[in-house]
Batch of 4 targets.
Target 1
Amino acid sequence: MTLRRNQIEALTAAIRRVKRLDLPADAAMTAFFREHPEMGSHDRAFVADGAFAYLRRKRSLETLAQTGDPRLLALATLVRELRHSVRDLDDALKSKEREWLGAFKARMHETLPDAVAADLPDWLWERLGAALGTEERAALARAWQMPAPLDLRVNALKSTREAALAALAAEGLPVTATPYAPWGLRIAGRPSLSRHPWLADGRIEVQDEGSQLVGVLVAPRRSDMVVDFCAGAGGKTLLLGAMMRSQGRLYAFDTVARRLSRLTPRLARSGLSNVHPQVIAHERDSKVKRLAGKIDRVLVDAPCTGFGTLRRNPDLKWRQSEDDLRELAEKQARILAAAATLVKPGGRLVYATCSVLPDENDAIVDAFLTAQPAFAQQDVAALLAQAGIALDTGARLRLYPQRHGCDGFFAAVLTRSA
């Protein structure tokens, strides 16, 4: 497919923007498209695909390209990642760029150092090796180099998975049921569904299958009092509310008002009336203290590196360091300890992250259990089996894209005895 000059120029500009790494990539691209309202939907999709492909393969691309020039990196991304031939680009190339691309293609098959070939920072490559072993690390790195499919969740208050499958398939979308989550749908590729009527009226929501399985582990009952302690934009809040059939009382806490405000329109179309969003100043806010010992189910979807989501958010591996990891671990421990004060005797506390690093997962839970003898761990595999889900990752939930097809997730289920 022959590419137009303005398409390559637009991708160059987008790579120049995301390359700064001063914003999350999706926010940077949203700002970029806002600055270029003349761009049609086809070109926007082309530019977004190219910019995220660059971020996923940034280290190996820049090493082979031997340059940080956005224009040349755009050409390298088009040829190596998006599989365009030099002929597709020919009308937009200068003679020196043709020569450069020829040399780049000759270097494409060079052997690179392992971390470079994996497109990961050295420190993260080493930590993954220690946590997973050589073979599993390599498989995970390969999975992170590929774009993720689009996962959706059917709102059980408004429809069924069978009805959604039939409707979306009738539109020609390559949709299947997710293998584990009972409300999940998966669509190959990244079709634009932002204005789809099923999204607009709340019958479906965008939500990764791993995130949905965390909700299964919370297992809220209709009459429960439930707290989503780090609700963010409310994806898991909406799932918990639907599981409660809009009964009981569900608090959505977050320390960032702007983040929590994104729940408002989603809540309006969800059909839920039992959700109470509340901004808190910190994990020891008075709004938290007044609920101490009263809550049946507490979900701590802790702020984390997000490395489990690198297929979707590849910029995270370039924007965070080992120092960030240490700071996050300290915050995670504080948040879990504060959230635990809410749980009443017999209640359930679920600690979850979208990370694959033990520093944010097992280390936090193990330290908590040592310090909190009133809490005991439940077996996640047994809980999933009770829910009719044939998934056994051991006593704690451990999801990986190369094994399970969804984002990387971790969860531990803890119950309070007294």
Target 2
Amino acid sequence: MFGFSMSKEQKMVSREVSKLVKGLVSDSAHEMDENGEIPGDVIQKAWELGASVSSVPEEFGGHGMEDSPIESIIVLEELAYGDMAFAVAATSPSLFINPIRTMGTEDQKKKYLPLYCKETFNAATLALNEPHFGADVMSLKTTAARNGKSYVINGSKCFVPLADQAGHMLVAASVDGENNLFIVARDNPGLTIGEREKNLGCYALPTFEVELKDCSVDENDRLGGSEGCDYTLFIQKTRVAMAAMAAGIARASYEFAKEYAKGRVQFGEPIVNRQSVAFMLAEMAYEVDSIRLMAQKAASELAAGKDVSRSSYLAKMYAGEMAMKVTDFGVQIMGGHGYIREYPVERYYRNARGISILEGMAIV
């Protein structure tokens, strides 16, 4: 089980990612959000940390390290602390790499992992969310029908990160009522990438709708082969990751609001001395820790090979609600300044809304 202090290795991972975020992201996050773009060199610097390929065997281009969900959530929290859009973009290849590494056939690993485990960032992604009312990733409308030695996929996806750049994507589809993942190339006939979406938050992250109309893929590109993959476990791992990112966003809002309250003087004293503000900051602090602890509990159960259906669901659900609460308090503490785009708390608030709405934007 997890402990309440990080190991020496985990502290090192946290320190290195934090250094990257403070050096490249924190000061430029507002500009990236306004411009709707993350510079390629910034993503490349994050890629060079090697988090996305650390657990990939060396024979496929990775580092061959032990799989560690706890270290993954440490990385995701620190990246999201800088900016959620950046965190999703920088780790998007993991949405493709991780399922193939853990659930793919040997042939799939040999064919696809070396393509995305190089020194240079190479985009890959996941098409999971669907654009219809009441969409549920456990009850997919997108279907894949067997046709000889192929599967024909039909359906629509939305909020697909970096779809315009990705060489391949995993597409979630139902085969006779059973949810599966399929490896689909961007140039595959029948796959169409729509216009870039205009979203409430994460302005810097390019997301797209994807249409699949009679999109035929080889039977060998069904993740896990004829047996398929453990789709439920896959979803659970993405939910733990989303909770970790929520901890990063909430912590960023809390820390910014706290420093503002210490420096903002009204009626002869800092507003942090006022009970109403102090109580909000205290509540923000323990909710940040609560989100993190729930993510850690679920991640530790993953590492132990336990059933995480309950803990992963609760972690994401709680994270979605409390990240909104914490970031809303951040806006309130700053008063009118919190509503101005010059300050980051409004961006934290917008981005936090995506935690409860979106699925599968990151994975541990």
Target 3
Amino acid sequence: MIKPSPEIEAIVRRMSDTIRSHEVADLPHYFSNDEAVLYVGTAEDETWRGQILRDGISAHLAEVPDFTEEDVEIEAWEHGDVGWAFRQTTYRFADTGVSGKHRISFVFVMEQGRWKVIQHHISNPTSNLDKMGVEHRAFRDLLAAAEDEQLVVGLEGLSSIMFTDIANSTALAEAVGDRIWHGVLAEHLTAAEEIITLHGGRLVKSLGDGTMSAFPSARGAMSAALALQDSTVSQASEPPLSIRIGIHTGEVIATDDDYFGVVVNKAARIAASARPDETRVSDATRLMAGNAPDFGFSNRSEIPLKGLEGSHAVHVLEKQA
């Protein structure tokens, strides 16, 4: 059965982090030992196979100058001993100011209990009109037709969106290895979904080592957050985990399987601003709690949130004694 693969997603994320930080010495260990292993880059001569690839990949990627990335998207899947992933990002090189998109695909095979890359391909989008004088329209027309029928899209009224994220997940995964980390992560995500559902929420999607969920009430979201923090702290398995949680309340756009809008973006940014073992909520979520005796709030602060104008009031959520 084909299923999402948080383990492969985490591996892809770590590979990308090593390149961006120039800590590339261990990159050969990510690739298969089979002679069929293949790397295809964006330049005309960037095609390598087998031992040449394993011998040269660290030096090749060490030559990449400093760059930053935004709008990173990763999806990963597995089926038996085969897996694959797709990573898309917007890059900008510090020295030249050149920016653009990278689209990167990976094919994985299982070798001695570990996922290894058997094929790795990087591309930059190029207009078909510029390349061959034809602009493909088949998929564009298909998408336009789907948009005309628009599946159950509308304002959902007030919803509380909650994001969770495991702090220091890259370091933890490297310490215990991908196979053990996959088990720890699966256990954590299963427990998180149970808690979210128990408190009236809906797990919208898992995001590698985190989650996005939606609640019809702010109180339900905050109760779930407190329960998640308690559950994570008391988790018996190793390594011990710490999570960051962010919640924001407002009107969202909903489809059958996802939520969109500024509320979603703000909740994600609030979660990113939290410290390990900390839950932060927006001013709007705080107001929705009213005088509920189960919740305490401290450390009100005005902070900037990436991609959102101005400063934003956030509070640390605490369980009332």
Target 4
Amino acid sequence: MLEIRDLYKSYKNFKVLNGLYMTIRKGDIYGFLGKNGCGKTTTMSIICNIIPKDSGEIILGEDGTNKIKIGYLPETPSMYDYMNGYEYLGYIAHCMKYDGDVKKRITGALALTGMTEGAKRRIKGYSRGMTQRLGIAAAIFGRPDLLILDEPTSALDPEGRAEVMNIIRNLSDTGCTILLCTHILGDVERVANRVGIMRDGRLAAEGSIDQILASFGLDSVEIQLSEPDERAYGLLQELPFAERVQVNEKVGLVIADVKDGQAGMGETIRFLADNAVSVTSLRLSRPTLEQVYLSIVGGHWS
């Protein structure tokens, strides 16, 4: 659906995009992550042909013909607030020179975004959530192949975020490919099937959430000792299969970080049994997307 190859963009002497490669497949909900200033908005603006690239390739469509329809919701959509929702979508239809059944298309877009009743009111009186939903209705009016959403849930309360996430799922079910740019990692975990994490103008990680967690995070086996045991502490700090071992002698807890949690748990159990180490409990914990994200964007990457 979208392939970016070796994309560069600079503003004066500041290089925003530095050889970006990125792939979004048909049907993906792609979570686009990164700190402010890392190049996400610039990338989306280039895809939408709002600003020119310096160099590189943007390949759109399954056959690479670049003949696809794109819908775009900016972070802060600007609307004529004296209009109501129906009038605004009618204006969008006019700008697009849409020659089909305008009323039917407006009705469908409003129904899909839960704005059928709200569209009767003036935009000036909308809540932030209603504005976002009408913005999505405008972005999908042309039934895009690729929908780009820039921070669609920013400043929304939990109920508003849940509503927007449901809209995204419903749009995906219709076959729409979605590029979701957000700082809210929980939203990405809820709906995205693939993720790209930007750093220094290029992707530091790309893949499914499970792939990224496996590649950049460590599982942890938490070992609660039955009682303080210096011999056990010494043994456990030498676990041959652990990447890192942390000991908290005050609470009798040892945490062994391993690449493969299931295998690490099994090896830990065998190790404890072979060395007659008495424990109260064992617990396997997985890294979160937030932990991995912070390790990628906060550390050095080259």
